[in-house]
Design goal:
Layout: H1 9-23, H2 25-33, H3 40-43, H4 49-58, E1 126-131, E2 146-150
Parallel strand pairs: 1-2
Helix pairs in contact: 1-2
C-alpha cells in the first residue's frame, strides 16, 4: 500500500484505528502488513548515538526530553537513560536498547519492530498503540507498565510484568478494541503476577513456567497457548478461551478463580 509511505506514525495509527472500526480488527492488521517498511522513515536515523547521548546528558535533572517522532532506527542505544522521556511516535525499528532505562517513558505509537529491549527497565512505561512485532524483551522489567501494543512473536522469556496492565481499553471503544496482542509470543518463565490480561490476545503463546498468580485473564484469548507448569493461584480465568491450550502440570490450580468457567475447557489439553 504505497499510499501510506509518507504518513507519520500518528497518521498511520489513526488509519489502523479507522480500519479497525470500519472493517474489524483484522482489517487494521492487514493494513499493517501492507505498510512499506523499506522507506527511510522505517530504516534510517536522523542522529547518531553520540548525539542522542549528549542530548540526554544535557537534559536538566528531573526534566523529560522530547524525542517524539524522531527516527532512531537501527541505532545502538544500549544502556542509555531515557527515564521519563517522550518517545511518542518515534521510530526505533531494529534498534538496540538492551539494558536501557525507560522507566515512566512514553512509548505510545512507537514503531519498534525487531528491536532489542532485553534487560531494559520499562517500569511504569506507557506503550499505547505501539508496533513491536518480533521485539526482544527477554529479562526486561515492565512492571506496572500500561501496554496495548502489537507484540506478536515478541520474546518475553524471564521478563517481569508484575502488576502490568495489558488489558483492553474499555473506555474508548470508538477507537476499536485497544489491547495487547501477544500471539505466538514467548513468555517462558515470565513473571505476570497481578497483571491485568483481560481480553489480551495470547493465542499460541508460550507461558511454560510463567507466574500468573493473581493475574486477571477474564475473556483472554488463550487458544493453543502452552501454560505447562505455570503458577495460576488466584488467577481469574472466567470466560477465557482455552481451546487446544496446554493446561498441564499447573501449580495452584485449586486456588485459581473460575477455571471451570473458561470457554472450551473441554477442548484443552489437561494431561
Amino acid at each position: 500500500m504505497k499510499a501510506v509511505q509518507g504518513m507519520t506514525a500518528t497518521m498511520l495509527w489513526a488509519s489502523f484505528i479507522l480500519a479497525g472500526v470500519q472493517g474489524g480488527l483484522a482489517s487494521a492488521q492487514d493494513m499493517m502488513d501492507q505498510v512499506d517498511l523499506s522507506t527511510p522513515a522505517f530504516t534510517t536515523a536522523e542522529m547518531t548515538r553520540d548525539e542522542l547521548a549528549a542530548l540526554l546528558e544535557a537534559a536538566e535533572l528531573g526534566s523529560s526530553i522530547d524525542l517524539s517522532g524522531k527516527r532512531l532506527n537501527g541505532l545502538d542505544l544500549s544502556g542509555l537513560d531515557f527515564r521519563g522521556a517522550n518517545l511518542r511516535g518515534a521510530y526505533l525499528n531494529n534498534a538496540k536498547l538492551n539494558g536501557a532505562k525507560l522507566d515512566d517513558a512514553i512509548l505510545d505509537q512507537v514503531w519498534a519492530l525487531r528491536s532489542d529491549f532485553s534487560h531494559a527497565s520499562l517500569i511504569g512505561a506507557k506503550l499505547f498503540g505501539a508496533q513491536m512485532r518480533d521485539a526482544n524483551f527477554a529479562s526486561a522489567d515492565l512492571s506496572r507498565a500500561r501496554v496495548t501494543a502489537d507484540l506478536t512473536r515478541a520474546n518475553f522469556r524471564d521478563a517481569k510484568l508484575v502488576d502490568a496492565d495489558l488489558s483492553a481499553d474499555m473506555k474508548n471503544q470508538s477507537m476499536g478494541l485497544m489491547r495487547a496482542t501477544l500471539s505466538s509470543a514467548d513468555l517462558t518463565g515470565a513473571d505476570l503476577s497481578g497483571a491485568l490480561l483481560s481480553r489480551v490476545k495470547l493465542e499460541f503463546a508460550k507461558l511454560t513456567g510463567a507466574n500468573l498468580s493473581g493475574a486477571d485473564l477474564m475473556l483472554a484469548e488463550l487458544a493453543g497457548a502452552d501454560l505447562s507448569g505455570a503458577t495460576i493461584a488466584g488467577a481469574n480465568f472466567n470466560q477465557a478461551d482455552v481451546a487446544s491450550a496446554k493446561l498441564i502440570g499447573l501449580i495452584g490450580a485449586d486456588q485459581a478463580i473460575d477455571l471451570d468457567k473458561a470457554r472450551n475447557l473441554d477442548r484443552a489439553r489437561l494431561k
